[in-house]
């Protein structure tokens, strides 16, 4: 009798499992997280959820990467006619750096066929790619990057931008972080290093093949004009098989924590607005704990340095005499050192 009962129970559980899969493949998936619980997401690398419900993608360690995924892969393609569904997502994020004036490297929202990013690198690759895989059309990855490090090797426009990435970190389109005012269209620059929470909206119109990315400070209504707007046929990027949605983040030389406070997603519709009153707060780093990476302006007329530089590591920035010449070295980008010398 108990064996029959157990078999019945197993059959029921299998039926429920298949019903869940069917629900996740019907093109109507949606979810909203106003703050996170550990069971809301799956994690990789240093990513985790804090006790107060913050998704913490990186944790103030250098050369790190973290990923968080919605546990169930979602179907982005209409199997009847092969087109890509419209979708929309919004999230609130914020970065906390160990330094007063730099952070790095950034984070992405991504759609990927795999949860396995073990071969991906941090730093400018944002935990999604490496030197070999970057730009490969077989990646089938769409990412929206929020980037705080200027990496000229991957054609970054500056050290404070948002980009649309297809299969690699050389962006198809990118723009300095900020928003356009609804009344007069003027552009307001937003510093990603401000340690203030900000919101991003990503909307893809499958019929128009139009991808819009919009951002604003938290609690501001979504601006009418997107920050980025690009016509992209995602049918060559997103696969027929269900794909994972989530966030990646990486650090390089600068110790930074990258946080997500809330996240909403909807296939074939507008993502449910986040409830700001329910979101956890972005932690504040104590300013007197911070190191300062100085901007260095060197005058060749000086015979001795007339300023004091401090850094958490003499490897990042240093000053001294080399072959009788005063020399400043700055590790500005990953392991690239810049040296300035004068007599
Ligand atoms: Ca970068
Ligand atoms: Ca970039």
TrEMBL record:
Belongs to the leguminous lectin family. In the N-terminal section; belongs to the leguminous lectin family. Keywords: ATP-binding, Glycoprotein, Kinase, Lectin, Membrane, Nucleotide-binding, Receptor, Serine/threonine-protein kinase, Signal, Transferase, Transmembrane, Transmembrane helix. The lineage of its organism: Eukaryota, Viridiplantae, Streptophyta, Embryophyta, Tracheophyta. It is found in: Membrane. Residues 29-277 form the Legume lectin domain. One of its GO terms (cellular component) is membrane. Its main location: membrane. It is a single-pass type I membrane protein. This is non-specific serine/threonine protein kinase. Its EC number is 2.7.11.1. Residues 1-24 form the signal peptide. GO terms for molecular function: ATP binding; carbohydrate binding; protein serine/threonine kinase activity.
